[in-house]
Amino acid sequence: MPNYRAPQIHSSEITPEEVWQSRRYWMKAAGASVLTGAAAGWPSIGGAATLPSLEATVSKRFFTMEPRTPEKDAASYNNFYEFGLDKGDPVKHAHRLQTSPWKLRIEGEVVSPKTLDIDDIRKLAPLEERTLRMRCVEGWSMVIPWIGYSMSELLKQVQPTGNAKYVEFITDVQPKNMPGLSSRAIQWPYNEGLRLDEAMHPLTTLVLGMYGKILPNQNGAPVRLMVPWKYGFKSAKSIVTIRLTEKPPVSSWMKALPSEYGFYSNVNPEVSHPRWSQATERRIGEDGVFAPKRKTLMFNGYGNEVASLYTGMDLRKNY
Ligand SMILES: Nc1nc2c(c(=O)[nH]1)N[C@H]1C(S)=C(S)[C@@H](COP(=O)(O)O)O[C@H]1N2
Ligand SMILES: [Mo]
């Protein structure tokens, strides 16, 4: 049942598309299983063909009453620096990403390292549709119906050793296909890290699809991470290696701008980025440029679930 308190939404803010989306949502919640995809397709973006459907059960635990971000916004306003620095670059260039065959290697401090292909990953646990908020450190947010399952399902399979304290996520590098690699803004491959208990938290999701279909390339096909209580950059796209380690991994963003990006990167309206406030956000597809900004919630509104991970920690120091 709805366990996330949604900020009040005025009916005047809800567009017909969102009304339709939420009606569709309730119908699905009643019917439990979804197979959307082609039937619900949007006009193709960047000439991309409609993506194959991905069947999933609507999660009763991970959803929100807030309207979903229109699919076309979620699939065309992106950060994926491997394909360029502008929000419109990934949708323009990510069709060049080679997603098949794809191998995901899970290694490091584990009893049984594994190399899985996408079929193995899809079959590893039942796929769920989880509608989660995503808050980018730049001050915008979205509500996206992701398809996947808890990262813990995957990590259990490889059995972390007693030395495993952290998990590193490493993105693919395809020099011929990624025009953004010429930028020296960050070090490639793009990498991110979590503490093992954060990675094992049920909200930490291994994502294979969104909006009833497999992931569009620009959203991190064929497999990405989604950690909804942290800033969006923690959710690495197009992952090829998951490495369990004893020492905290140093992410691309920590290397590039250590005073701005720390290891934790929990959404926290009380701790400003050195160059801007994090107190408010603009919901893409809903809040116009002139609309009053909405308040950002501690842990992006997932505090009931995750605050206990940080008991006793100074979240100003551990930013
Ligand atoms: N490999 C890789 N993963 C990445 C990024 C990136 O540039 N490269 N950008 C991050 C940032 S800053 C955000 S906000 C989210 C955006 O995800 P979306 O485009 O699916 O909304 O992806 C994250 N994952
Ligand atoms: Mo971001």
Describe this structure in words.
With 319 residues, the chain is α+β, with helices and mostly antiparallel strands. It has one domain (23-310): Alpha-Beta Complex (Sulfite Oxidase, Chain A, domain 2), CATH 3.90.420. 16% of the residues lie in helices and 22% in strands. The chain is built from eight helices and 14 strands. It has helices at 16-31, 71-74, 89-93, 118-123, 151-158, 196-199, 252-256, 303-306; strands at residues 33-34, 56-58, 103-108, 114-117, 128-135, 140-150, 166-171, 191-195, 205-210, 213-214, 224-226, 239-245, 280-283, 294-295. Strands 1, 2, 5, 6, 9, 10, 11, 13 and 14 form a nine-stranded mixed beta sheet that branches. Strands 4-3-12-7-8 form a five-stranded mixed beta sheet. β9 and β10 form a beta hairpin. Residues 1-48 have low confidence and may be disordered. It binds ligand MTE and molybdenum atom (MO). The site of molybdenum atom has 6 residues, from loops.
